[in-house]
Amino acid sequence: MGTPVVGVLALQGGVAEHLAALERSGARARPVRRAEELDGLHGIVLPGGESTTMSRLLDVFELHEPLREKLAGGLPAYGSCAGMIMLSGAVCDGGDGAAAPAVRPLGALDVSVRRNAFGRQVDSFETDLEFAGIDGQVHAVFIRAPWVDKIGDGVSVLAVVPEGPDVSERSEAAGRIVAVQQGAVLATAFHPELVAGDERVHRYFVQIVRAR
């Protein structure tokens, strides 16, 4: 493959940061707002943002079913934070773990994800973690982040929250799953697009796209 074309769902969230990171990672990046803009893509990124809003806008722009069909057909995808929630198979809310009916996930990953799992905006934190397939530690920015509660067969765990003083004060944070891969679908609970000068996660995804 020459230069892969990777779309970024551009309805809401950190679109510009992902577009720039993908370009620096060797892809030709373009925003996606309409169903016809899915055609010709070799991969797609679902950015961070607010999952309830993102889910609603996918319906408003008549993108939910076309995107779901593309993913079911094997389109490589990467989701960060809210993007991880949207790629999941099931979503529950933090706290009591009740189902989140306002979010209609796309079912591209056989995982169950808990929204706002680490707490509110004031509980946002940063830490360094080991990421399978990437040399050296990855600096991870967690903002009202989810974590993965359950994984199905065929899902690989790429990163968990480490023990350490820079982890959220919530005692259950350490050890939680925050990066997974299933085939050509990648997801992280954190925001690598916000770490200036480090495109390793995006380069990892572009490699997935090239391999596909």
UniProtKB/TrEMBL annotation:
Q: Which reaction does it catalyse?
A: aldehydo-D-ribose 5-phosphate + D-glyceraldehyde 3-phosphate + L-glutamine = pyridoxal 5'-phosphate + L-glutamate + phosphate + 3 H2O + H(+); L-glutamine + H2O = L-glutamate + NH4(+)
Please indicate if the UniProt record lists Lyase as a keyword. Answer: yes
Q: Sorted alphabetically, which keywords does the UniProt record give?
A: Glutamine amidotransferase, Hydrolase, Lyase, Pyridoxal phosphate
Q: Where is the signal peptide?
A: none
Q: What is its EC number?
A: 4.3.3.6, 3.5.1.2
- The catalytic residues are C81, H191, E193
Q: Write down the SUPFAM superfamilies for this protein, in alphabetical order.
A: Class I glutamine amidotransferase-like
Organism superkingdom? Bacteria
UniProt xrefs under Pfam families? SNO (PF01174)
For binding L-glutamine, which residues are annotated in this chain's numbering? G49, E50, S51, R115, I143, R144
- Part of which pathway? Cofactor biosynthesis; pyridoxal 5'-phosphate biosynthesis
Function of this protein?
Answer: Catalyzes the hydrolysis of glutamine to glutamate and ammonia as part of the biosynthesis of pyridoxal 5'-phosphate. The resulting ammonia molecule is channeled to the active site of PdxS.
What is the protein name given in its UniProt record? Pyridoxal 5'-phosphate synthase subunit PdxT
- Originating organism: Saccharopolyspora halophila
